[in-house]
Amino acid sequence: LLLDLNLNGESGFDLLESVVSKSFHTIIVSAYTDKAIKAFEYGVLDFVPKPFDEIRLGQAFKRITNAIKTTDEPLKFLAVKKAGNIKLIDIDDLLYIKGAGIYSELYLKNGNRELHDKSLESLAQLLPSSYERIHKSYLVSLGLAEKIVIEPGSKYSLLLKNGELLPIGRSRYGELKGKMG
User: Fold this and answer.
1) pLDDT in tens, 127-176
2) Range of weakest confidence among 30-44, 46-60, 90-104, 136-150
3) Domain range for residue 127?
4) What are the angstrom distances between the C-alpha of 107 and each of 77, 98, 140?
5) Full-model pTM
6) 38, 70, 102: which is the final residue of a domain?
7) Do 121 and 170 fall within a single domain?
8) Which of 23, 131, 153, 156 has its CA 20 to 30 A from that of 70?
């Protein structure tokens, strides 16, 4: 997350307080260099003073890359842009994800849906290993799966614990069956 401390009169620190800042890496970009120590108290990865140049910003991005490589913590949130705001969706609130062209539709346990700006392929690489690609258009956490249902015409579906049925791609059936036992 790239964050300025001045957000149209609001404080960037308020945003850091309102979310679990440890669930993502944050770089503060601000002219308020006197706030750098406070920023690091919030667990930000770097503080880039304004005005900045490409070299300094590149160093900050390199820190993020190095931090990601050394971190074993799984992704905890997905950021969804909506009406000019960013909403964080807790991974534990996901029911499944359906591909929608170059975007993905997040189906939540509370019945809501959110559109994510990453493709299903990109999300499959970001999400914890419990998420399985069961079809070219579906990603689901196997912890939410009840059983595989064999339907007429050699079609397969995954029955979720909430009663929803999702299609299983033929090419993915064998591997999925092995993982579910």
Assistant:
1) 888 899 999 999 999 999 999 999 998 899 999 999 999 999 999 999 99
2) 30-44
3) 78-180
4) 14, 8, 10
5) 0.61
6) 70
7) yes
8) 131
The CATH number of whichever domain residue 34 belongs to comes to 3.40.50.2300
- CATH code: domain of residue 116: 2.40.50.1020
Residue-level pLDDT at 20: 46
Q: What is the distance between the alpha carbons of residues 181 and 178, in angstroms, rounded to a whole number? A: 5
Q: What is the DSSP string of the chain?
A: -EE-SEETTEEHHHHHHHTTGGGS--EEEES-GGGHHHHHHTT-SEEEESS--HHHHHHHHHHHHHHHHH--PPP-EEEEEETTEEEEEEGGGEEEEEEETTEEEEEETTS-EEEESS-HHHHHHHS-TTEEEEETTEEEEGGGEEEEEEETTTEEEEEETTS-EEEE-HHHHHHHHHHH-
Q: Are residues 55 and 144 in the same domain?
A: no
